[in-house]
Each structure stands twice: as structure tokens, then as C-alpha cells.
Task: inverse folding
């Protein structure tokens, strides 16, 4: 690490160090960073997680919700009916379309804002509760990002993250298929250190969520992330089957704003 010693600089460097080397990226058959809306579909019956409990507690008798990096809406849709109106922010149009369609299907009042947080914060406006699930590790400048979540929330904020960078489990496969040693993965503790640096003191709850995909689906995702063609799928699936079981550690970070 060559940073200036701040938690924000350390976070940025940890993320930038894990960028895919340009020569491997250039030869990739598909965009290794692409997210598919169907992988993020909101479950019909939301699981009773610490994130959902924290959101419902902040909403109390009811209130509006802003979902930043909403994807297909799993975070905010899990708060219905306590959430009386949902605003979804995402920079991916296909994700926003999936969010809007699911809100329509469930009869939830909603609005979408297309663009990158925190740049679109003025357009998104405030809400009683702000939720942001599984976005932090995409965000090199996480200090202004979380400060804007805080500013937008009248009652409180709920952030959900994997305990370590969500691609850390692929590190042994980078070594096996590309001969590449990956640098250390950022963890939630690095994110909490940045939050503390901008004056936030989140409550931290730990829990586990097993991987949502079977080995074959994990192999499809791994091929894309590893910049390998789909005809390596069987080989990658066999390599995944040899990995130690994944812990699936998740953290919920939540705080009141007023
Ligand atoms: C891993 S998905 C999580 C989606 C959803 N929150 C969930 O938990 O199912 C991350 C989402 O955040 C969006 N995203 C990432 N960085 C963003 C930013 N700075 N502003 C707006 N959207 C962002 C991506 O397009 C993607 O839809």
C-alpha cells in the first residue's frame, strides 16, 4: 500500500489493485464486470435477515425508501408493506427496468433514477430510510458515497455487504487458470474504517447466506469474471468443486441519522 495512510486511500488502493490486468481484459469474450438482473431477482417471500429487520424497525409504522444500486429491488422490495413508496437508483438501465417491472407487478408505488450515486443524489431526493445492498465493493470513492446515503436518510441507513470482496473466492482460480496471484481482498472492516473516517458509527451484525447458485451456475459466472470462454465451463466447474466450502459471510451495517 502506498496511500496517504487514510482508510479511504487504503480502500481505493485495495479495489484498484484487483482490477483485471489489461491484456487479460482485452481478450475477454464477455464483459467480466457485467451483472445480470435475473441473478438479483427479489424473492417472493423475503428472508428474515438482519438487514430486513433493521429496515423494518427504521420504517416503524411506514415510510418511504430509497434503494441505492437497487438492481432488481431485492433490498427495498423486502421492506413492503412498511415501505410505502420506493425510489430505485441504478446506473444500469436493465436493472432499473427489472426494478420497475417488479414494483408494478407487486403494486408498489415507485420511481426510478438512472445514474451513478452520489452524482444523482440531488435528483433522487431524500427518503425516510435509505438501503444499499451489495454495492460498496464497486465503489472506489466510498467515503462520499456513504456520506450521501447518510444525508439522504431522514431516519436511518441500512448497508449490506459480503464480509470480504465478493470475488475473493475466485482468487485460487485466477492462480490456476491465469497463473496470477491476486492481491489481498478488501473486507467490510476496511469499509467500516472509511465510514468512521467520515463520522459514521454503524452497528454491525454478522450472518451467513449460502451461495445462491449451484456449481454449474457458479462456473458460468466464474468463466465470465475470469475472462474465459464458455467452452471452459466444465473445467471451471471441476475446479470450483475442489474449492473449500464458501462461508457466505454477510454483514449488515445500520445507523440512525436523526
Ligand atoms: C451486486 S448488484 C446488487 C443489487 C441489489 N442491491 C441487490 O442486493 O440485489 C449492484 C448494483 O449496483 C449498481 N451500482 C453499482 N455502483 C453504482 C453507483 N455508483 N450508482 C448507482 N448504481 C450502482 C449496479 O448497476 C448493480 O445493479
Result:
Amino acid at each position: 500500500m502506498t496511500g496517504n495512510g487514510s482508510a479511504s486511500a487504503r480502500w481505493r488502493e485495495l479495489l484498484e489493485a484487483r482490477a483485471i490486468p489489461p491484456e487479460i481484459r482485452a481478450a475477454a469474450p464477455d464483459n467480466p464486470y457485467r451483472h445480470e438482473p435475473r441473478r438479483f431477482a427479489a424473492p417472493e417471500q423475503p428472508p428474515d435477515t438482519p438487514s430486513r429487520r433493521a429496515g423494518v424497525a427504521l420504517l416503524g409504522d411506514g415510510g418511504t425508501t430509497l434503494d441505492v444500486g437497487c438492481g432488481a429491488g431485492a433490498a427495498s422490495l423486502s421492506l413492503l408493506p412498511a415501505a410505502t413508496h420506493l425510489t430505485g437508483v441504478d446506473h444500469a438501465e436493465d436493472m432499473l427496468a427489472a426494478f420497475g417491472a417488479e414494483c408494478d407487478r407487486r403494486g408498489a408505488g415507485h420511481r426510478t433514477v438512472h445514474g451513478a450515486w452520489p452524482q444523482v443524489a440531488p435528483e433522487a431526493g431524500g427518503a425516510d430510510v435509505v438501503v444499499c445492498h451489495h454495492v460498496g465493493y464497486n465503489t472506489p470513492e466510498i467515503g462520499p458515497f456513504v456520506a450521501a446515503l447518510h444525508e439522504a436518510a431522514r431516519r436511518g441507513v441500512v448497508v449490506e455487504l459480503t464480509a470480504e470482496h465478493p470475488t475473493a473466492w475466485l482468487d485460487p482460480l485466477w492462480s490456476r487458470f491465469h497463473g496470477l496471484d491476486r492481491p489481498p481482498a478488501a473486507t467490510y472492516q476496511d469499509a467500516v474504517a472509511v465510514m468512521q473516517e467520515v463520522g459514521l458509527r454503524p452497528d454491525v451484525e454478522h450472518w451467513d447466506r449460502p451461495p445462491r447458485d449451484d456449481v454449474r451456475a457458479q462456473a458460468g459466472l466464474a468463466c465470465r469474471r475470469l475472462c474465459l470462454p464458455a467452452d471452459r465451463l466444465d473445467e471451471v466447474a471441476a475446479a470450483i468443486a475442489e474449492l473449500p466450502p464458501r462461508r457466505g459471510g454477510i454483514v449488515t451495517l445500520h445507523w440512525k441519522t436523526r
In short: The longest helix spans residues 93-106.
